[in-house]
């Protein structure tokens, strides 16, 4: 039996063509006509896996054809690899980051900041014509190499292998050392000894454990951020001023505000205005870094908020959302459940803590921008002690009216694996809602065993 590919229906073309352009960092613009052409002609040829209708993707993910911004996030995702290649051809600097921080300093220093998922997406998109299984096999092979060359104890989200094999033109590895991520220390150290030892490295030293209200810690971290920007400037050859950093903070605050408002609009609706995948991809725009282009993310985010407000006003339900789905909140780093399959089982994902923590953390715009960034970053709810993080999480669970909580940790994600139990215990004690902890194997499609356990939890709810 041949593979069935999803096609965007011409019935929705007219409405889509009335929507806005996407404007990119370099000032270039792509029109809805061009996006439509890409999604219906070029995209399916280059990335058939993304259009495949099968057990893993169902016919739900990014298939909300009457929501123009759903198509636009699909477009930005599919063109990501090509856009990064073009950016490098034009001499743009690219940094590999990790650790769950906002990217204001990198934006200020005219550097694209890519976290692990995006580095892997860049590599994935370099090969064309793969169906979903071939694309997955290719990803698994590269991770297997990283396990051999680095350590089987690390999660390997980081894309160590792509940098060390020279597959991707990454100029500098400059993550924050933060609580959430145990892969940073493995990764950065491993790069010191890999075949490409000459890749520039900088660790932004984040003071750990209850330091948020200590003046020395804020000053120390602010100094580290200055050194980070200095290192990024060594790569680009430019001089980043404090004014550049303030402008970047203002820009990112706009994204954070819009992203937070969009999520709260979604939560305010009686019926979910989008499915799980669209909610996640639209709220993720708030951090402006998700597509490697802050302006493109901002322009789609502005439009998305308008469309979601309209849907909420008119009581429109998202594509393929069932009546009264069980609402699930996801906890943990670099994780998620298969939205489409979980919807088939009767649920919908209404939020997650990772990334949302820093989307909700606005940075003061007056005064020393490095100090302001340091202060906010040290206060990220996700990076606080177990009790504090759990109490912030409970607030989000209540706002989202979640019926259940799943804490997921990847194999090798040592910090999250260790804190999962006490965090869900506090949540359960204080809210009474059912919780469940789930270990995930990184880099695969949602395996049957994993989905069976998620489905059993949904059934129990
Ligand atoms: S899964 Fe955990 S260890 Fe791996 S990159 Fe994410 S936070 Fe870091």
Task: Output the keywords.
single chain, 461 residues, alpha/beta, Rossmann fold, four-stranded parallel beta sheet, 10% strand, binds iron/sulfur cluster
Task: Summarize this structure briefly.
The chain has 461 residues and is an alpha/beta fold. It has 20 helices and 12 strands. The site of iron/sulfur cluster has 14 residues, from loops.
Description:
The chain is an alpha/beta fold and 461 residues long. Among the domains are: 91-238, Rossmann fold (3-Layer(aba) Sandwich), CATH 3.40.50; 322-461, Rossmann fold (3-Layer(aba) Sandwich). Helix content is 51%, strand content 10%. It has 20 helices and 12 strands. It has helices at 13-17, 32-46, 48-51, 68-78, 80-89, 104-108, 116-124, 132-149, 160-164, 183-193, 215-236, 242-268, 276-283, 294-314, 339-344, 356-359, 369-378, 386-400, 414-431, 448-460; strands at residues 22-23, 29-30, 93-96, 111-114, 172-173, 176-177, 200-201, 204-205, 326-331, 347-352, 404-410, 435-440. A 4-stranded parallel beta sheet has the order 4-3-5-7, sandwiched between helices. The chain has a 4-stranded parallel beta sheet with strand order 10-9-11-12, sandwiched between helices. Strand 11, helix 19 and strand 12 (435-440) form a beta-alpha-beta unit. Iron/sulfur cluster binds at residues 98, 116, 155, 157-158, 180-183, 333-334, 410, 413, 416.
């Amino acid at each position: 039996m041949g593979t069935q590919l999803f096609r965007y229906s011409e019935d929705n073309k007219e409405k889509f063509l009335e929507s806005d352009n996407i404007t990119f960092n370099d000032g270039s613009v792509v029109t809805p006509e061009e996006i439509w052409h890409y999604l219906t002609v070029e995209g399916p040829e280059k990335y058939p896996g993304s259009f495949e209708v099968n057990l893993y993707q169902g016919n739900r993910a990014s298939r909300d054809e009457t929501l123009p911004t759903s198509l636009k996030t699909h477009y930005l995702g599919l063109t990501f690899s090509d856009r990064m290649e073009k950016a490098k051809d034009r001499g743009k600097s690219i940094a590999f980051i990790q650790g769950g921080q906002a990217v204001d300093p990198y934006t200020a220093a005219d550097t694209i900041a890519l976290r692990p998922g995006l580095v892997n997406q860049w590599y994935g998109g370099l090969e064309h014509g793969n169906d979903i299984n071939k694309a997955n096999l290719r990803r698994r092979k590269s991770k297997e190499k990283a396990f051999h060359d680095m350590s089987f104890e690390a999660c390997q989200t980081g894309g160590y292998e792509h940098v060390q094999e020279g597959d991707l033109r990454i100029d500098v590895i400059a993550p924050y050392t933060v609580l959430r991520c145990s892969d940073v220390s493995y990764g950065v150290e491993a790069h010191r000894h890999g075949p490409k030892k000459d890749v520039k490295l900088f660790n932004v030293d984040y003071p750990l454990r209850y330091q948020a209200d200590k003046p020395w810690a804020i000053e120390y971290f602010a100094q580290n951020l200055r050194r980070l920007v200095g290192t990024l400037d060594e790569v680009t050859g430019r001089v980043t001023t404090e004014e550049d950093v303030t402008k970047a903070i203002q820009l990112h605050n706009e994204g954070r505000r819009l992203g937070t408002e969009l999520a709260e609009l979604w939560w305010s609706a009686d019926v979910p205005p989008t499915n799980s995948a669209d909610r996640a991809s639209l709220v993720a725009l708030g951090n402006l870094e998700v597509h490697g282009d802050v302006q493109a993310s901002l322009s789609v985010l502005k439009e998305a908020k308008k469309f979601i407000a309209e849907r909420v006003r008119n009581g429109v339900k998202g594509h393929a959302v069932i009546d009264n789905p069980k609402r699930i909140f996801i906890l943990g780093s670099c994780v998620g459940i298969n939205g489409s399959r979980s919807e088939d089982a009767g649920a919908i994902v209404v939020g997650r803590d990772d990334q949302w923590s820093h989307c909700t953390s606005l940075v003061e715009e007056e005064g020393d921008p490095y100090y302001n960034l340091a202060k906010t970053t040290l206060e990220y709810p996700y990076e606080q002690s177990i009790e504090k993080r759990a109490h912030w999480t409970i607030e989000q669970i209540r706002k989202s009216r979640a019926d259940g909580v799943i804490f997921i940790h990847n194999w090798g994600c040592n910090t999250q694996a260790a804190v999962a139990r006490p965090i869900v215990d506090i949540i359960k004690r204080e809210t009474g809602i059912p919780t469940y902890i789930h270990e995930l194997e990184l880099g695969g499609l949602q395996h049957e065993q994993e989905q069976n356990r998620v489905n059993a939890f949904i059934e129990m709810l």
